[in-house]
Amino acid sequence: MSANASAIVPNQAARSDVLIRLTDIKKSYFSGDVETPVLHGINVTIQHGEFVAIMGQSGSGKSTLMNILGALDTPTSGSYVLNGKETSTLTDNELAKVRNETIGFVFQGFNLLKRMPLVDNVALPLLYAGVAMADARKRATEKLAQTGLGAFTKRLPNQISGGQQQRVAISRALVCEPALILADEPTGNLDTTTSVEIMSLFTRLNEENGMSILIVTHEPDVAKYAKRLVRLKDGLVTYDGLVSEADL
Amino acid sequence: MNLMQVFLEAFRAMGMNRLRAGLTMLGIIIGVGAVVLMLAIGESVREDINRRISAMGSNVMVIFPGSSTSNGVRAGRGVVQTLTLADAQAIAQLPTFNAVAPIVQQPFQVASGTTNWNANVMGVTPEFFTVKDWEADRGSLFGEIEIRSASRVAVIGATVANNLYGEANPIGQTIRIRNRPFEVIGVLASKGSDLGGGDQDDAVFVPFSTARQQLIRWGQPGSIHYALAQAASAAQVQDAVYDASQLLRIRHRIREDQEDDFTIRDLASIAEAAQGIATALTLLLGAIGSISLLVGGIGIMNIMLVSVTERTREIGIRMALGAKRRDVLMQFLTEAIVICVCGGAIGVGLAYAGSVAITNFSPMEVGISMTGIIIAFSFSAVIGIFFGFYPAKRASTLKPVEALRYE
Question: What domains can be seen in chain A, in order of their start residue?
Answer without folding.
Answer: 2-245 (3.40.50.300)
